[in-house]
Design a protein that fits this description.
Largest sheet: 2 strands, antiparallel
Radius of gyration: 35 Å
Strand content: 5-15%
Helix content: 40-55%
Distance between the termini: 68 Å
Number of helices: 4
Number of domains: 2
Strand order of the largest sheet: 1-4
Structural class: mainly alpha
CATH class of the largest domain: Mainly Alpha
Shape: rod-shaped
Length: 190
């Protein structure tokens, strides 16, 4: 048995003949009758009427005509995201700004990690803390980038300013100065 598909599906509505009682008060789409035709072939008939038993014939179902309206609502421009809906430009720019702040803070933490991991400083606990802090800030930036992409925004990265490579402080010492810097970066980051 070969099946073929066409763009236009058609069906005809007529009263059910034999094999079942038709309800006395019919409403549209209120009755569906299945019957076996001559030779055991199956057929189905739909009876739809409003108080009158007049059959409907020649109803054509064209789903592609209905879809044309929705197809025209899709943006055709090349750089327009299909996912962007109800996403204000101010929100997009604020998230881009936060992404850049997260990357800058991560870069400073990474510089602190490199400083405390040196052989002449050798404060391994602080080096580990700043390395983990750097990775955490980078993860925050990546989460914001994923959110920006999901909402249909565009990520705009700014150049990262290079942090100092020396964190010596004559009055406070290296560790205290670095922790105060980390606290101030935490306030900027929020």
């Amino acid at each position: 048995m070969a099946l073929s598909c066409s763009k236009v599906l058609s069906f005809y509505l007529s009263p059910v003949v034999g094999g079942g009682d038709v309800p006395k008060k019919l409403t549209f789409s209120s009755f569906l009758g299945l019957s076996k035709g001559v030779g055991g072939s199956r057929s189905s008939r739909v009876c739809a009427a409003s108080n009158a038993p007049a059959p409907l014939a020649g109803v054509i179902f064209e789903p592609f005509q209905e879809l044309k309206k929705d197809y025209l609502a899709v943006p055709i421009a090349h750089n327009v995201s299909l996912a962007r809906q109800n996403y204000a430009d101010d929100s997009e720019s604020a998230i881009n700004e936060q992404i850049n702040v997260e990357y800058n803070v991560s870069y400073v933490y990474h510089a602190l990690f490199a400083y405390f991991d040196r052989d002449n400083i050798a404060l391994k606990g602080l080096a580990k803390f700043f390395k983990e802090s750097s990775e955490e800030e980078r993860e925050h930036a990546e989460q914001l980038i994923k959110y920006q992409n999901i909402r249909g925004g565009r990520v705009v990265l700014h150049p990262i300013t290079s942090p100092p490579s020396e964190f010596e402080h004559s009055e406070k010492g290296d560790a205290l100065y670095a922790m105060e810097l980390a606290l101030s970066l935490g306030e900027v980051d929020e």
